[in-house]
Backbone:
């Protein structure tokens, strides 16, 4: 059996590698074949013919398309994602700077979505077609129907502008970052402030994290509730759950110990999907909360038509996404070896 | 063989019809799906008669009214006015048509492209099927919305480009769905017998494989109509969709971003319109899925 899993992991990893190559190819095609002139974008507004000519040669756009792809790929393998037009830094360093801020936001949103989603989903399934179920389903449907950028703005109006409970945006308030400066160790504000015992900065960072995480959590919350509910209903129809009930086991034990455990492999898929949506949701969420992460970076790059930055961050995020999917598949294979067959 | 093939079709069709009626009853019985249907019908009617009922149709098309800038909601302007004094209610009414047509176009073209590809991949299997599905996998490897962002950014902001970008990201989902369905169907007795009496591959795919893939695809399409509205709104929110002065809901939220902290109504109402319409599609789609998922209704129907 162990060998079966080993082979499966290898096969999936090889598949993921091919998919990553495909992602790079598609990104490349989008940037080079679709009508639109990267050279003109590179030069900026109101270009002269000579400038475009020079940029075309500089970017290698006059070479055959397969040579261009080869150059693009080899640069990528060396970690060279090009230079951002907007910030004049290498895209790689820009992306690396934004990544931890984004991860902090994504992970906290993900935790909120998953914990709330599992609780509501299980509760909903166990009261199928009764009031708690309708309420749970409605909450889930609201979660996936809300335009995330709009929810973010509504939260700002209510909790920042009107009630003054949470800050409007950014990662820390200026006063705190001047009086209690944070030493960067991991790049995660919450972890760094704990490590340096800087509790003021910890509280401030936490306070700034609340609204962006809530706005970002809505969609994956709805998704998790839906999937958990569906698969719990399925498991609850099985005979062993009915026997458990007949034996008089407490329903909490049946729900969370027996039923949820048997549905664990679908739970993992639900979590993987939720994480994927958190990842892309962060793009608009960060822009509204002025969160200095990868999402803001990409969104600003798009607004400025900063071509290398857009392609670079997209490839990084897509690779990240492929890896998450791979891990979900492998984890699932360990939980349920039938998958490897 | 010949008899089996010719008789199985009408029987099958009857069965489809009966299934459809059972399904219709399930959907109409449920208060959630009934609400969803009512919402969709409401917005479709709004899209059809919008120009006749909107209080300020000329402002909806972009004519400013500088004297009434950023008025809060009152009897004159139920949803207030924007920074050019235009009536938000009228603009939202005009926006219904744009939103519905955008999402319908995205989903329809994605199905037209994706479904036959999946059916062909599933029917032929082997090498051709593998090639098609590997290409599909590559498109599916992008996180949702990300590929659309890149394509739309490359093409430049316009409503048509946003639609094109969303189609490019959406078709592989239907290919995958149709593929699963087609590969389950291709060795069923009625397909085998059609092949045995010498019906051509193209005709088998058109007459037997494609119809078999239709039901799950239509269910998915209902849910996708809502998601496509949100995705298109996200693109216009970034300035990659419809351009001013189009009364597009996502664009209106984007324009309202500058003013919304002092003038709450500007971004709130267009966003609310998106929320309610998408809610309608999701309420209906959820109920349809619940009614048609064999795993969920297994014990219930017996």
Residues:
């Amino acid at each position: 059996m162990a060998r079966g899993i080993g082979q499966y992991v290898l096969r999936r990893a090889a598949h993921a590698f091919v998919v990553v190559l495909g992602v790079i190819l598609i990104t490349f095609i989008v940037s080079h074949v679709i009508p639109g002139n990267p050279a003109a974008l590179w030069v900026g507004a109101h270009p002269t013919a000579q400038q475009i000519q020079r940029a075309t040669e500089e970017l290698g756009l006059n070479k055959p398309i397969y040579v261009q792809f080869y150059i693009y790929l080899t640069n990528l393998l060396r970690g060279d994602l090009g230079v951002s037009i907007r910030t004049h830094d290498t895209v790689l360093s820009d992306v690396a700077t934004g990544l931890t801020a984004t991860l902090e936001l994504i992970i906290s949103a993900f935790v909120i979505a998953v914990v709330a989603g599992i609780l509501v989903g299980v509760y909903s399934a166990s009261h199928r077609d009764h009031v708690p179920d309708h309420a749970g389903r409605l909450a889930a449907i609201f979660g996936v129907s809300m335009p995330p950028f709009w929810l973010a703005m509504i939260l700002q109006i209510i909790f920042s502008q009107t009630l003054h409970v949470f800050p409007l945006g950014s990662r820390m308030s200026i006063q705190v970052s001047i009086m209690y400066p944070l030493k960067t160790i991991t790049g995660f504000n919450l972890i760094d402030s704990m490590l340096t015992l800087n509790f003021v900065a910890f509280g401030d960072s936490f306070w700034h994290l609340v609204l962006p995480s809530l706005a970002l959590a809505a969609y994956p919350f709805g998704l998790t509730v839906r999937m958990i509910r569906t698969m719990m209903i399925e498991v609850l129809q099985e005979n062993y759950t009915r026997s458990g009930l007949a034996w008089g086991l407490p329903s909490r034990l049946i729900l969370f110990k027996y039923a949820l455990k048997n549905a664990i492999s679908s739970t993992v898929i639900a979590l993987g999907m939720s994480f994927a949506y958190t990842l892309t949701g962060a793009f608009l969420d960060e822009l509204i909360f002025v969160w200095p992460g990868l999402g803001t970076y990409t969104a600003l790059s798009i607004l400025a038509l900063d071509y290398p930055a857009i392609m670079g961050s997209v490839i990084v995020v897509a690779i990240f996404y492929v890896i998450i999917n791979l891990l979900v598949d492998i984890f699932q294979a360990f939980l349920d070896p039938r998958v490897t067959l | 063989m010949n008899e089996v093939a010719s008789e199985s079709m009408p029987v099958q069709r009857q069965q489809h019809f009966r299934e459809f009626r059972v399904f219709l009853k399930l959907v109409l019985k449920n208060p959630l799906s009934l609400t969803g249907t009512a919402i969709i019908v409401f917005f479709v009617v709004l899209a059809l008669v919008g120009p006749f009922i909107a209080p300020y149709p000329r402002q909806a098309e972009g004519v400013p009214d500088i004297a009434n800038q950023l008025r809060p909601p009152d009897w004159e302007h139920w949803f207030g006015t924007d920074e050019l004094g235009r009536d938000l209610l009228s603009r939202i009414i005009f926006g219904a048509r744009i939103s519905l047509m955008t999402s319908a176009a995205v989903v329809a073209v994605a199905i037209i492209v994706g479904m036959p590809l999946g059916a062909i991949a599933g029917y032929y299997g082997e090498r051709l099927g593998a090639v098609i599905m590997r290409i599909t996998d590559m498109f599916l490897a992008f996180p949702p919305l990300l590929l659309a962002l890149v394509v739309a950014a490359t093409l430049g902001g316009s409503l048509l480009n946003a639609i094109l970008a969303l189609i490019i990201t959406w078709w592989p989902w239907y290919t995958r769905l149709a593929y699963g369905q087609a590969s389950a169907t291709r060795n069923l007795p009625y397909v085998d017998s059609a092949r045995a009496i010498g019906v051509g591959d193209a005709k088998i795919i058109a007459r037997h494989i494609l119809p078999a893939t239709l039901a799950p695809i239509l269910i998915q399409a209902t849910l996708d109509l809502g998601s496509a509205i949100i995705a298109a709104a996200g693109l216009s929110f970034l300035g990659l969709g419809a351009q001013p002065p189009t009364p597009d809901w996502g664009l209106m939220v984007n324009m309202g971003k500058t003013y919304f902290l002092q003038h709450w109504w500007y971004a709130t109402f267009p966003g609310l319109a998106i929320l309610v319409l998408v809610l309608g599609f999701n309420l209906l789609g959820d109920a349809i899925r619940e009614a048609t998922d064999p795993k969920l209704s297994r014990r219930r129907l017996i």
